[in-house]
Amino acid sequence: MSRQHRWLRQEVARWRAEGLVDEALVQRLLARYPETTERGWGRIVLSALGAVLVGLGVILVFAYNWQAIPKAVKLALAFGALAAAHGAAMARDRRQPPNRALVEGLHALGTMLFGAAIWLVAQIYHIDEHYPNAFLVWSLGALALAWAMPSLVQALLALFLVAFWAGVEVFQFRAAMHAAPLLVAAGVLPLAWRRRSPALLFWALAVLVAVTAFAVAGIDFDPLVALLYVTGAAILIASIAAPETSFPEAERPLHAVGLFVVLACNFVLSFPGLAGYLGRQHFARPELAAYLGVAATLFAASLAAAAWRLSRGGWGRLDAYRHGQAALIAVGVAIVAGCMLAHVKGGGWAVALPFKVIGLALATLLILEGSARLQPRLVGAGCLYFALITVSRYADLFGSLLARAAVFVALGVGLFLVGNFYARNRRRAQQVRT
User: Fold this and answer.
1) What 3 state SS string does 179-231 have?
2) Per the domain annotation, does 67 fall within a domain?
3) Does 154 reside within a domain?
4) 334 in helix, strand or coil?
């Protein structure tokens, strides 16, 4: 029984005992929200992690005294272990009821052994190849299995391998892997939407932002923050339209990833020296122009989707916190676009100060929203942003130790007041429930 269904049964039992509802209404309520089979993601993830560790151990065992093993035995070990893992998983999946944690774990072990087989075959036949390509082939195998099963664990493995491949290429070889964002966007995002998986959508969006940053950094660092700001804003604005789609649960991962990216970019652009990078854009380079064009198109599409939802009466269902976030982020995107198009040089406080204000306003909205809805994660995120801003300004804003001390005292008092405000709202909510 899921946690939500258990809570519902406890509540309707209390309502019936207090005479608020009768037995017929209780049965109608329970029928309206039928009990679903619990997926047991905790057991599945633990089984997958265990399989990954076992796979790493097997790889090390193969590597130990590998030269002394005959070639035929090496191939038999590599492909035999791979076939045994996937074969055992398929055999266990046919049993009723299937043990999903065990099946996912065995398939994850098979994927790890597939990666081991790639390296071992290359070693056996002395294949001299650009080694990051092995991670690409490995990720394609995991992605194919993610679609065939379908499997969240395999999709997450594919995302990790794609990110690792793109990261190695850019940080070790200074090569921009433009295929990485396309692979995530075309291979993983549709699977997350098809399976209606908020967790997979969250990680797919996070990896998509990361590999896009890797690809742009492999070309030029100058437009990176501007590109990420517009991309994060597009993801966040898209969350406004998500409740009107066939996947309404997409709202939370879209909002979380988009807001994190925007806040991170706001933090970077709040430094006068870093804000000057907004005016150093090279639109003549076709790769950068393509990335910036895609980001601008996504932002325009998300605005159109949000406007479509609001035109259908969604404005009244959108709370004041999201109104404020959307307005602040729209202002931030306008400043980014203006600085880029006007080639504003030097940056300075004229550019950095608006981003500082936007970031602090977004953090304030997070604290207020988290306190009103009793969501400590939102409150913690807002307080963390305030703390980062204060600590980062310790050295460059004030020359007086007394002024620095005053700022830290003000931060401490502010956090204390936030804690009291949250606790007071929580007590009120508990009194209303009782």
Assistant:
1) HHHHHHHHHCHHHHHHHCCHHHHHHHHHHHHHHHHHHHHCCCCCCHHHHHHHH
2) no
3) no
4) helix
Distances (CA, A) of 420 to 230, 316, 361, 374: 36, 30, 20, 13
362/259 Cα distance (integer angstroms): 9
What does pTM read for this prediction?
A: 0.82
Q: How far is CA 281 from CA 34, 289, 339, 420, in A?
A: 55, 9, 9, 46
Question: Tokens representing 240?
Answer: 């406004």
The position carrying tokens 């325009």 is 300
Distance (Å, rounded) from C-alpha 101 to C-alpha 155? Answer: 15
Say which range, 101-115, 166-180, 242-256, 327-341, has the weakest mean pLDDT.
Answer: 101-115
366, part of any domain: yes
CB under 8 A, 24+ apart: contacts of 126-131: none
Interior angle at CA 73, CA 68 and CA 77, nearest 5: 110
Q: Compute the distance between CA of residue 385 and CA of residue 362 in angstroms, rounded to an integer.
A: 9
Instruction: State the total domains in the chain.
Output: 2
What are the residues whose beta carbons fall under 8 Å from the beta carbon of 141, sequence distance 6 or more?
111, 114, 115
Asked if residue 222 lies in contact with residue 287, where contact means CB atoms within 8 angstroms, the answer is no
Q: pLDDT-based confidence at 64, cuts 50/70/90?
A: low
Q: Is the pLDDT of residue 332 over 90?
A: yes
Q: Which of 41-50, 61-70, 126-135 has the highest mean pLDDT?
A: 126-135
DSSP H/E element including 104: helix 100-124
Distance CA 71, CA 343 (A): 61
At 10, list the tokens. 């406890």
> End of a domain among 375, 390, 405?
390
Q: Is the four-CA dihedral 143, 258, 354, 380 of positive or negative sign?
A: negative
Range of the domain at 326: 221-390
Residue 273 lies inside a defined structural domain of this protein? yes
